[in-house]
Each structure stands twice: as structure tokens, then as C-alpha cells.
Design brief:
255 residues, alpha/beta, six-stranded mixed beta sheet, four-stranded antiparallel beta sheet, globular, binds adenosine-5'-diphosphate, binds magnesium ion
């Protein structure tokens, strides 16, 4: 292609991108995914974990993703949150096309825009409960004194004021998950992702976590959870059944 045509083609693509972003923002769409595919290659085997997924999430929606083990729920959450990248397809978050961001920009984007809560907590094992929270605040540029103040406040909110100095291994599963939730909320992100966050927890902790998510819903946070926990499913605006890397159906709850 001659150089001039090439430049025109790039400009055309950029115009299309800009139009797309304007459309998304106009409709309050916070996360938009189109024709997503993700494959994992292990030796001679290829697993298509995500197989052609289109997805739109509006600001303030509470989305629950259900599906059997191996359905691709974790992979989907990782893609939508920018923790991992697809083999094919496009994702926009907050009007930003993920594939336009390099690794470092994407990390900053995640830090500011989303909190992620994992099934296995993923706390930094050498840092105390308080330090785990301070770490993400400091990474986002909050000064130490303010970060410490916020960490103390967050730990109080999740009922762990007395556990500030504990290392993860000195905490119960439920306590670790509460620290992980406090960490995910530290930078007050507009979007919260959670991957089977109550799967390994007792009833009391699960109810406590449900109450936290009820408050987050009332604050109009955008929430995307992979879960089978009825207490959390009760809060959903949209329930998505997911299997074999595909959306099987989508149920919108009219309240
Ligand atoms: P779910 O969270 O619904 O249980 P996953 O997203 O974890 O499903 O996995 C979807 C499919 O992709 C599964 O078949 C799983 O074995 C495969 N898979 C997930 N992660 C990897 C990986 N890092 N490497 C290879 N295969 C993977
Ligand atoms: Mg999973």
C-alpha cells in the first residue's frame, strides 16, 4: 500500500475508534467487549477458554456470571479487567481500548479503575494486613500518612482493626478475604471484579461480604462477580450463564 493510503487508512481506523468511544460513553457503557477469544496452549493441546464473547456492562450494574468449573469464568474476568489479553477481539474500559495500552499503562489503568478480589485472596505474604492495603495506595501515589490513615479506616470497615499487624498466614481464610476486599476498595475504584470470593468461606463471613456488596451496590459501583453464592446472586441486576467459553443466556432482573 502506498504511504499516503496507509496514513489515510490509519486515520480512518482512528476515526472509527473515536466514534465507537463516543457511542459507548453516551450509552453509559463502562466495559465493552466484542468477539473475544482466548486460547491456552499446553503442549500439543489448545484449550479455547473464551469462544466468541460479546459483552456490554453499563455503569452501576451488578453482574453475576454463573457456570460450571472450567466454563471460562476466571478467564473472562481476567480479560474484562485487563489482567490478561485476548487472542482476538476488542475490549474497551472507560472509553479506553485496552490493546492501545502498553503493559505499564494498563497496570496504572487497573490500579485506578478497578479492584480485583480473587478466590484465593492473593495477599502479599510478607506484608501485614495493613501493609497489603498501604501498598496499593502508595502505588497509586497516595502519600504514606494518608495511605496509613485510609488502611486503618478500611480495616475497621471490614471488622479487622485488631488484625492490622497480622501477616496473611496468621489470618483465617475469612479474615484474609476481608483484607483482600479492603485492598480492592483502597483506591475507591468505580469497578469491582470478584472471582468466587465466598467459595471457601463460612456462612458468617459470606454474609458479612454480602453486606459489603450491598453497600457497594447502593454506592452505584459497577460490580462483576463470578459466583454461585445465592446471597450475592440476590443482589444482581443481570445474571449470565456461561459455559464452554460462551454466554449461554442472560437474565435481566426487573426489580
Ligand atoms: P472457570 O473459572 O469457569 O472454572 P477458567 O477460566 O479457569 O474456568 O478455565 C477455562 C478453561 O481454560 C479450562 O478448561 C482450563 O483448564 C483452561 N485454563 C485456564 N487457565 C489456563 C492456563 N493458565 N493455562 C492453560 N489452560 C488454562
Ligand atoms: Mg474460576
Amino acid at each position: 500500500m502506498p504511504k499516503k493510503d496507509k496514513i489515510e487508512k490509519i486515520n480512518e481506523e482512528e476515526d472509527k475508534d473515536a466514534d465507537k468511544i463516543i457511542d459507548l460513553l453516551k450509552d453509559d457503557i463502562l466495559i465493552f467487549a466484542q468477539s473475544l477469544e482466548k486460547e491456552y496452549e499446553i503442549g500439543d493441546y489448545i484449550v479455547r477458554a473464551i469462544d466468541g464473547v460479546d459483552f456490554k456492562i453499563k455503569e452501576g450494574e451488578f453482574i453475576v456470571i454463573k457456570g460450571p468449573s472450567g466454563a471460562g469464568k476466571t478467564t473472562l474476568l481476567n480479560l474484562l479487567s485487563g489482567l490478561d489479553s485476548p487472542n482476538k477481539g476488542i475490549i474497551y474500559g472507560h472509553g479506553v481500548k485496552f490493546s492501545d495500552l502498553d503493559e505499564e499503562s494498563l497496570a496504572t489503568f487497573r490500579l485506578v479503575n478497578s479492584g480485583f478480589i480473587f478466590q484465593n485472596y492473593n495477599l502479599i505474604s510478607t506484608l501485614t494486613a495493613e501493609e497489603n492495603i498501604i501498598f496499593v495506595l502508595r502505588t497509586a501515589g497516595v502519600d504514606f500518612k494518608e495511605a496509613r490513615k485510609r488502611a486503618v479506616h478500611l480495616l475497621k470497615k471490614v471488622g479487622l482493626s485488631e488484625r492490622r499487624e497480622h501477616l496473611p498466614f496468621q489470618l483465617s481464610a475469612g479474615e484474609q478475604q476481608r483484607v483482600a476486599i479492603a485492598r480492592a476498595l483502597a483506591n475507591d475504584p468505580p469497578v469491582i471484579f470478584g472471582d468466587e470470593i465466598t467459595a471457601n468461606l463460612d456462612k458468617k463471613t459470606s454474609e458479612f461480604i454480602r453486606d459489603i456488596f450491598k453497600d457497594l451496590k447502593d454506592l452505584r459501583k459497577t460490580i462483576i462477580l463470578a459466583t454461585h453464592d445465592d446471597r450475592l446472586i440476590d443482589l444482581a441486576d443481570v445474571i449470565i450463564n456461561f459455559d464452554d467459553g460462551k454466554i449461554i443466556n442472560e437474565k435481566r432482573i426487573i426489580k
